[in-house]
Design goal:
Structural class: alpha+beta
Number of helices: 13
CATH architecture of the largest domain: Sandwich
CATH superfamily of the largest domain: Jelly Rolls
Number of strands: 12
Strand order of the largest sheet: 1-2-4-5-12-7-10
CATH class of the largest domain: Mainly Beta
Number of domains: 2
Strand content: 15-25%
């Protein structure tokens, strides 16, 4: 169901009142019509509700989302033929989203975190729980004129608790379609201020992590994914396996705005989630699934899974398997 208010210049879409099957079809049709090149995937048998309010913010467009878990993929094969050529600044108000690039590298986002997406590159968005988020769509030419090499910032981790990134996160939290009418600046200037803060935050991020460091960081994450099944994996042991000092390991993860432990736990939880959705592992108990994902303590696994996905492992499995 959709509505538009010309005086406020926004569009609102919602699945409210629709049965689950119709809600998913409605959302997929509306997203496809307004956002070419996105393929949606919904959990089987799970209820689904979603709503979005979109409003112009000068040359940019702000989308305020409230969605149940689902996946949005932007495959590389669609990029060359569709007409979308934007950057998207994604900010999470509440819930959790995992962004993945074309190589399969994951960038988990929780409340208060943001990341820049480049529509010229393939990516996927996995909304892991009921999530409220904002997406600021910025034309490539407009952002590139204010932020040289914007492509280099796409899918780069920026710690939202420090420096200019903290100021940007505060602005993204406060700006909504509902509050835009009362802003003391013209909307185009507000968009320009957001781009300026993003540029300042990017300067700090690029200074903290050079290109060769990013390449090393991504190599380490790939190696971590291959070794996550080992419950005895520690920073010291992993650093020794990779031929680097433990201090260097911690410095690389800190420069990326994360930590070894945080990344390893996120990888293990995501791997466990994939096993719970896989019919080939339906005979495995939750304890066995936790062990396969590298968790030494099943209770700890269940607690962390519930915190991350807002569902217990058993309920998550039941909703995602026939």
């Amino acid at each position: 169901m959709s509505s538009a208010d010309a005086t406020k210049s926004y569009v609102h879409l919602s699945t409210a009142g629709l049965p689950p099957g119709e809600a998913k079809a409605f959302w997929a049709d509306e997203v496809s019509a307004r956002r070419p090149g996105l393929l949606l995937d919904f959990p089987r048998e799970a209820p689904f509700q979603a709503a979005v309010t979109a409003a112009s913010l000068g040359p940019a467009r702000l989308l305020a989302l409230s969605v149940e878990p689902y996946v949005a993929n932007r495959p590389g094969r669609y990029i060359a033929r569709d007409l979308v050529d934007d950057f998207c600044l994604l900010y999470v108000d509440d819930g959790s989203v995992v962004v993945s690039d074309a190589t399969g590298t994951d960038f988990p986002l929780s409340a208060g975190q943001f990341i820049l997406l480049d529509d010229a590159a393939g990516f996927s968005l996995r909304f892991m729980s009921r999530t409220q988020a904002k997406a600021l769509k910025m034309p490539r030419a407009w952002l590139s004129a204010r932020m040289p090499c914007a492509e280099d910032l796409a899918l780069t981790r920026i710690d939202p608790s420090t420096g200019w990134a903290r100021a940007l996160a505060s602005v993204l939290k406060e700006v909504t379609p509902a509050t835009m009418a009362n802003l003391p600046l013209p909307l185009g200037e507000v968009a320009g201020q957001i781009a300026a803060l993003l540029t300042l935050a990017a300067g700090r991020a690029s200074g903290e992590m050079k290109r060769y460091q990013r390449m090393t960081f991504h190599r380490l994450r790939r190696a971590m994914r291959e070794a996550l099944h080992d419950p005895a994996l520690t920073p010291s042991r992993f650093a020794e396996q990779q031929g680097i000092a433990k201090r260097t390991l911690h410095a690389l993860f800190a420069a990326a705005g994360t930590s070894f432990g945080r990344e390893l736990t996120a990888m293990r939880l995501d791997y466990a989630r994939s096993l719970l959705c896989d019919a080939r592992f339906s005979a495995k108990s939750i304890t066995e699934i936790s062990a396969l994902a590298g968790f030494a303590n099943p209770s700890h696994f269940s607690r962390r899974f519930l915190e991350t996905f807002a569902l217990s492992p058993s309920v998550y499995r039941r909703l995602h398997l026939d």
